[in-house]
Automatic annotation (TrEMBL):
CDD domains attached to this UniProt entry: ABC_DR_subfamily_A (cd03230)
Lineage: Eukaryota, Metazoa, Spiralia, Lophotrochozoa, Annelida
Protein's recorded name: ABC transporter domain-containing protein
Domain ABC transporter residues, every copy: 25-258
Compositionally biased intervals (Basic and acidic residues): 267-276
Membrane topology: Multi-pass membrane protein
GO terms for MF: ABC-type transporter activity; ATP binding; ATP hydrolysis activity
Membrane-spanning parts: 519-543, 564-590, 596-621, 628-648, 689-710
Keyword ATP-binding attached: yes
Boundaries of every ABC transmembrane type-2 domain copy: 477-713
Alphabetic keyword roster: ATP-binding, Membrane, Nucleotide-binding, Transmembrane, Transmembrane helix
Pfam families, sorted: ABC2_membrane_3, ABC_tran
Region listing for Disordered, in residue ranges: 267-301
Length: 715
């Protein structure tokens, strides 16, 4: 950490308060770094800078010296730790100031362009952010196309050459004819002809009272500026008109001046090193003129900082609220931008439309359908001789041959059971040796049932899969009914009197459970909508942030709430189409039963989708990389499905897990959906309205949290 040169006292702090009306930018004693604690990187150190209105200020310095950081402080994108910045007369970010906003044109170092937009659409987007009439945007676009030799406005940005893309980026900064132009290395990688053209234009507009700050590490290029600031290690070594610097140092080039200043600075550093002390970065540092010991100095620092930051925070409290309030023109700009992006990616949009319908199709095809071709061992102990009626053969004949794959093990029941134990069969059917004879006698009022106990059909099943168990049982009952109908009709008896001689013995594995097919469908519908929506927005900020587009839009005056609303509005359209297709497939094609109001059935997935979107925005706010965002959204799918009672009933969960489950956004909703679909309940039932309330509550909560995180991270 650097040595503080001087302690700022209360009086001194007042003295540095900025009031000069003719100064477009005034930076006083600014400190700013990145990170915190041991990982803190100090960047700006006690930096002063003055830019007069209507001049070109060349900010020069080697790579990494802090030029971009300083520009971001001037634009209000970064808050200074200590010191004061005034841009166009006020603290950047003040309510109604227009910085960030339309009073400033910003060209970031990176391209920061929507590559799928045309030049015209790009201009329209930034024009909307600056509240310009579209006719004026058109006019300015034509002017800038001519001035900067850009291709026609219908040209897609990604089809432009590198130089054309940079000039488009420059044109955006000039679009609204701002009072202040901040250009971060506009000439890097630009051919000399274009560089000359850019400087020519800058000189021309500076004569119309436009102030320009331009950074470059091509030192000689800045000779054309009215004033230059030579920056090194986070502070300015010198600040003067180029001619003055050359004259006073009696040197030929600015590069030589810069080298001389660096040597001088190195000498000064060595002198200071003997008195170097480590202090916390948030404390002010200047020439020690006051109390000498650290203990004496610290309270003074802290008071100053608290006083100054309190002043700032009081002033900004209302400002913050106002700046959060979404402005319609920004929301419209964001929404249109997102729709254009959707339109440019029509293949992906179709995929997004169809994916939920494909998922529900897979669910209906793979889950809930009747299993078939099930291996079942048959042990038929009955010996049918002659031409008499053979009941066991008749019974086996009636077993559905699509469902069963029968394997005969005559007289070897144990062998059949072993097959089930080995997992080679789902069950064993054991038919008693006197089955037909006893069945006939069973119907006789003279015979007691007890005496016939040994001649029934015995079933031993693997009951680990409830769907299969239930199918086998149902099919065996159906076959028995058909058999009893045959035999009793031949005896001229009413089949309704048949007594059922089928006994289900202890299962080999598992236990019998009820069916969950219809139980699962509502939860599956909701979770598909929820996670599709999360996926739609999880990359919302990540990509724009990485490409510098988010920063650029914010400098143009958009706030994070407006960006979020823009995303939600555009993606809501996609989601409505998804939900319509999803419900059509589920309810109309696969006949998932619904007893309740269709409005409620449609509304809940839509609300769940909106909540899913807010979760996506939260992921997007938290993650810096696409891979992290994708992993995060995918990683949430399965735990949520397992914990929300979508796949298996909550009643089977341990109590502590139930508490967690009820805290999740889809649990109450799945319950409500089930009640609306299967029981036909409406909003008067708690089990229904609680699902809607929880969904809305979660949506609002996550949205606010995302906005808060974006605010804190300054994105
Ligand atoms: N977001 C960040 N987090 C941590 N460190 C950062 C961040 N941004 C910049 N830095 C560090 O701050 C220092 C100054 O960076 P800055 O981008 O302001 O320099 P610069 O003078 O604009 O460099 P260049 O000319 O290469 O663009 C560098 O050491 C850089 O590594």
């Amino acid at each position: 950490m650097d040595v503080p040169d001087e302690v700022i006292t209360e009086g001194q702090l007042n003295n540095v308060t900025l009031s000069d009306a003719d100064k477009a930018v005034k930076v006083c004693g600014v400190y700013r770094g990145y990170g915190s604690g041991r990982n803190r990187i100090p960047v700006l150190r006690d930096l002063d800078m003055t830019v007069e209105t209507g001049t070109i200020y060349g900010l020069l310095g080697p790579s990494g010296c802090g030029k971009t950081t300083l520009l971001k402080c001037i634009l209000g994108r970064l808050k200074v730790t200590i010191g004061e910045v005034k841009t166009l007369g006020r603290v950047p970010g003040s309510v109604g100031h227009g910085v960030p906003g339309k009073r400033v044109g910003y060209m970031p170092q990176e391209l920061a362009l929507y590559s799928r937009f045309t030049i015209g659409e790009t201009m329209s987007y930034f024009g909307r952010l600056h509240e310009m009439k579209q006719s004026l945007v058109k006019q300015r676009t034509q002017f800038l196309i001519e001035l900067l030799s850009l291709p026609e406005e219908s040209r897609i940005i990604e089809c432009c050459s590198g130089g054309q893309q940079r000039r488009t980026s420059f044109a955006i900064a000039l679009l609204q004819e701002p009072e202040l132009l901040v250009l971060d290395e506009p000439t890097v990688g630009v051919d000399p002809l274009l560089r000359h053209k850019i400087w020519e234009h800058l000189l021309a507009i500076s004569r119309t009272h436009v102030t320009i700050i331009i950074t470059t590490h091509y030192v000689e290029e800045a000779r054309q500026a009215h004033k230059i600031g030579l920056m090194r290690n986070g502070y300015l070594l010198a600040e003067a008109p180029p001619s003055e610097l050359l004259e006073s140092y009696q040197l030929q080039s600015l590069e030589e001046v810069f080298l001389r200043l660096c040597e001088h600075d190195d000498g000064n550093q060595n002198e200071h090193d003997s008195s170097t002390r480590e202090i916390v970065p948030s404390l002010a540092k200047r020439q020690p003129s006051g109390p000498s010991s650290e203990a004496e100095r610290e309270p003074l620092f802290k008071d100053e900082i608290i006083t100054s930051s309190n002043k700032e925070s009081n002033r900004n409290c209302c400002a913050d609220l106002c700046s959060w309030w979404p402005k319609p023109h920004n929301v419209v700009a964001q929404t249109i931008k997102n729709f254009i992006m959707l339109r440019r990616n029509i293949g992906f949009l179709m995929f997004e439309f169809l994916l939920p319908a494909i998922q529900i199709t897979l669910f209906c095809v793979c889950i809930g359908r009747e299993p078939y071709n099930l291996p079942v061992a048959v042990v038929n102990n009955e010996t049918c001789m002659g031409s008499g009626f053979c009941g066991s053969a008749n019974f086996l004949h009636h077993l559905d041959n699509r469902t069963f794959h029968l394997m005969n093990y005559s007289h070897r029941y144990e062998e059949g059971v072993e097959m089930v134990k080995q997992g080679d069969a789902w069950g064993v059917i054991n038919i008693g040796e006197n089955f037909t004879y006893d069945f006939k006698h069973r119907m006789s009022p003279l015979v007691s049932n007890d005496t016939l106990e040994g001649s029934t059909i015995h079933l031993r099943l693997d009951m680990t899969n409830q769907q299969i168990t239930m199918t086998i049982q149902a099919k065996i009952m159906a076959a028995f009914q058909a058999f009893s109908s045959d035999i009793l009709t031949s005896m001229k008896l009413n089949p309704a009197i048949a007594q059922i001689p089928i006994k289900v013995e202890d299962p080999v594995y598992g236990d019998l459970n009820p069916s969950f097919t219809n139980f699962m469908a509502p939860g599956i519908i909701l979770s598909i909508t929820y996670f599709m929506a999360t996926g739609l927005t999880a990359l919302a900020f990540v990509l724009e942030r990485k490409q510098g587009l988010l920063d650029r839009s914010i400098v143009a005056g958009v706030n994070t709430i407006e960006i979020m609303i823009g995303h939600i509005l555009a993606q809501f359209f996609v989601m409505v189409v998804q939900v319509c297709l999803l419900l059509t497939v589920a309810l109309a094609i696969f006949k998932v039963p619904y007893e309740g109001s269709l409005v409620l059935v449609i509304l809940l997935p839509l609300l769940q989708g909106l909540t899913g979107m807010t979760l996506g925005l939260l992921i997007s706010a938290l993650c810096e990389e696409e891979t992290a965002a994708i992993q995060c959204s995918l990683g949430l799918v399965y735990p949520n499905m397992l914990l929300s009672g979508i796949i298996w009933p909550l009643e089977s969960m341990p109590q502590w897990l139930k508490y967690i489950s009820y805290c999740l956004p889809t649990t109450y909703a799945a319950e409500a959906m089930r009640n609306v679909l299967a029981r036909g309940w409406d909003l008067t039932y708690k089990a229904v309205w609680s699902g809607y309330v929880m969904t809305i509550g979660w949506g609002i909560g996550i949205l606010l949290l995302s906005a808060f995180i974006l605010r804190i991270k300054g994105k």
